[in-house]
Design a protein that fits this description.
InterPro entries: FAD/NAD-bd_sf (IPR036188), Flavin-dep_Halogenase_NPB (IPR050816), Flavin_halogenase (IPR006905), Trp_halogen (IPR033856). The protein is of the alpha+beta class and 516 residues long. It is built from 18 helices and 23 strands. 36% of the residues lie in helices and 19% in strands. Bound molecules: flavin-adenine dinucleotide and the ligand N[C@H](Cc1c[nH]c2cc(Cl)ccc12)C(=O)O.
Length: 516
Amino acid sequence: MLNRLVIVGGGTAGWMTASYFKAAFGDRIDITLVESGNVGTVGVGEATFSDIRHFFEFLGLKEKDWMPACNATYKLAVRFENWREKGHSFYHPFEQMRSVNGFPLTDWWLHKGPTDQFDRDCFVMPSVIDAGLSPRHLDGTLIDQPFVEGADEMQGLTMSEHQGKTQFPYAYQFEAALLAKYLTTYAVERGVTHITDDVEKVNLDERGWISGVTTAQHGDIEGDLFVDCTGFRALLLNKALEVPFISYSDTLPNDSAVALQVPQDMKARGILPCTTATAQDAGWIWTIPLMGRIGTGYVYAKDYLSPEEAERTLREFVGPAAADVEANHIRMRIGRSENSWVNNCVAIGLSSGFVEPLESTGIFFIHHAIEQLAKNFPDESWSPVHRQLYNDSIAHVMDGVREFLVLHYVAAKRNDTQYWRDAKTRRIPDGLAERIEMWKTQLPDTETVFPYYHGLPPYSYMCILLGMGGIELKPSPALALSDPGPAEREFAAIRDKTRRLAETLPRAYDYFAAQH
Ligand SMILES: Cc1cc2nc3c(=O)[nH]c(=O)nc-3n(C[C@H](O)[C@H](O)[C@H](O)COP(=O)(O)OP(=O)(O)OC[C@H]3O[C@@H](n4cnc5c(N)ncnc54)[C@H](O)[C@@H]3O)c2cc1C
Ligand SMILES: N[C@H](Cc1c[nH]c2cc(Cl)ccc12)C(=O)O
């Protein structure tokens, strides 16, 4: 039986993989995780997709247990500031797009918008976020959404099987290092062998398959399937097996980041329950509120900005609270491995690929890779079909997300610096130009977005197109011949619901203070 899994690397990717496979296969799988005591983890990675809740459910973990341990908060949207012009903001919320007579509400909004804010008119969440509210009441009940928690027909589905069925109203923000620690306890309690040591050599057999890894103090570790979770180093897949890496730098030039972890009194400050991405002269700054601190960082292209200037800008942006905080400068490898599974080696996490964290996709990539590996887990026959299906799925998810991110820059109206002007003339992925031409006339739908599963529904594309403001969009001509009454009633219903929620939901801080 093929059941010896060796995971090299103990960051978020390594521990998520170890925990998931123990939860999936129990004692029938033998898992060893070796992580260096000398090489650190990336140390950021704090905002997620809402889909991550399936991961926690699969492990049997409850919010009330893991969230306080990871200083976690709720994320109801990404808030984009200054991408259209300075002073403008809009949300990409976790909220299903309403549809009226077969047309998305955003189409009706284009036809006859009640205000110039598509997000506040078409969704409830933006006003909930502006008011700093929690999506759960103090007794734990969920915001009034068309969503049934724990519905039987949803159990055991992968993320791709869930897509389009429901939209859960929030994701999470947490300290990734604390989550890795929490999962270490989870995995070790369930029988994962944990070794702290440096892998110094990857041993290949005559076919070029990995027979084992040699550590500094624990000798050789042998296994059947090796999971490379060594981060940007990609020691097994890219270094030992020499699998080529496809850079995305021609379409996504941001290759650097500087991060700060700024202690804050969240009670005094309050929690804006979202991740904010504020456009800058040569990139953007993330702001992620956690319990007890703000995680923040400037993502930029070093062709346009030096690390010193980036750090200075970030410190000015944060203000005096950052004065004594040490900055963490990070070089990002943007792109993906040609194949993430080769022979008996599967790369998961940064070793497989990465795109800038503008839509918080890093942990989503890990979760997706784990689900796909579980689905395509090999036996002694090592069928190439499993590898092929896995590799295609990983490539599609990463290429699809790349396309979505490129759209942010192409659609942003801002053009006040060379960085933003170049964003309009840089090469874009094949197919995107044609799709944008189509979306100018007909808003994105399942038929016209990137044709493979990549985690993002068509309404996400609508939000970016409508919010960024640099591409002129037209409503469907059919709406001019249609009765506007039902759409007007829907806009009014959203206004009513927003008012009702503002009166009943607790402040986000108060909700978490009660949990802690
Ligand atoms: C600037 C930035 C911001 C990000 N923000 C987000 C976000 O908001 N949301 C999100 O979802 N994702 C985000 N990510 C991505 C996220 O950080 C990663 O996906 C996640 O942390 C997984 O990292 P990893 O485990 O693959 O690698 P790492 O954290 O780098 O871990 C690598 C592991 O390999 C081990 N290792 C390396 N060499 C050896 C060796 N020789 N022997 C033994 N062990 C070894 C190390 O000790 C470490 O344990 C961000 C990434 C960056 C760079
Ligand atoms: N898989 C979906 C992806 C998704 C839907 N809405 C949003 C909003 C934001 Cl900010 C990020 C991702 C998504 C999910 O996670 O719910």
